[in-house]
Amino acid sequence: MTDIASSAPHLSLAPPLRADAPWLAPLAGYSDLPFRLLCREHGAAACCTEMVSAKGLLYHSPGTRELLSTTPQDAPLVLQMFGADADIMRTVMPGLLEQGFRWFDLNMGCSVPKVVKTGCGSAMSRDMDNALAVARAMIEVAGEGRVGFKMRLGWQAGEETWREMALRLQDAGAGWITLHPRFARQGFGGEARWSALRDLAAALSIPVIASGDLFTADDAVRCVRETGVATVMFARGAMNNPAVFDEYRALLAGGQPPPPDADRLRALIRRHLELALAHSGERTAMLKMRTFVPRYVRHIPGVRALRNRLASCLDRALLEELLETHLTPQAFAEGGDSADTITTVSDGESRP
Q: pLDDT tens digits, residue range 107-156?
């Protein structure tokens, strides 16, 4: 596992905030170092870590340090924190600066019950004064313009806090706001209200990043053009297709991304495995692939059989055999009539 101190200089690189620079969202259980590196190779201009608990850092919880692992190629990098105690945040932030981290995000959007019940994530919309106290604690330590905030419209319909919260965060020194335009109580149901993105981009002088319902490159290009946001943050779109960043950039520039191709998909999966093996043990890497590959192949006919085999696959040779057997040009030519679906998971906010 990479030592943080030895690779600190790259952490100073500022994340770009422009339309042709798409971000990878913080994805608990997904946006680990190997996946971030894979997404960067496919056009991600900035990446966020998995969300890191401020209390976990304070009490040295097992596994927390692993979430901070990085390499010189992992830049620009934004460290996403979650926590609802300003004093704890003020205590742990200096240690992160000592390790080289310079760019941060506060999770104010997670709607998962185990996070919300602690007053963190989207529950922070219900106590704006405390949310702002936590935000100010982070900004005091990191500096103005170096902390972003990922938020929702509010707790539920009739309790819209997004506009006031964003304006007050801007006044406090926020560097950017990421808005997932759903209410916390919605989870991921219904449709993201992109009109709120447009309104917020017009109301703020700092950049707004769009999140929510960006499943494809076409979705993201349409969102940027309809709302005027600074850029987009891919979550589920990247989990299903790490090449979505390159595809988005191509479409935004007036080009056309290449159609799905068996050879490219096999190469992407092999590269992901290579990166996972480089930064973890083989068993851990194979367990990760069992999580990712079903998403990558969801549109392939016969995917149920492949998923069933993957469920017990801990062998690199078997994975290679499965790729050669199922990811064929013929399967892609047949289309997705018999493709399986993957259960929707949290947009960067929970472990599935």
A: 999 999 999 999 999 999 999 999 999 999 999 999 999 999 999 999 99
Report pTM: 0.92
- The catalytically annotated residue of 48, 110, 120, 223 is 110
Residues 183 and 84 placed together within one structural domain of the fold: yes
**Contacts (Cβ under 8 Å, ≥6 apart) of 284:** 276
- Per the structure block, which two tokens stand in for 148? 């972003």
Our answer to whether residue 223 is catalytic in this structure is no
Which of 239, 252, 337, 254 has the alpha carbon at shortest distance from 293? 239
The answer to whether the peptide bond before residue 76 is cis (omega within 30 degrees of 0) is yes
Give yes or no for a contact between 309 and 322, defined as CB atoms under 8 angstroms apart: yes
Do 59 and 175 share a domain, yes or no? yes
| Beta carbons of 22 and 220 less than 8 angstroms apart | yes
Largest Cα–Cα separation, the chain:
59
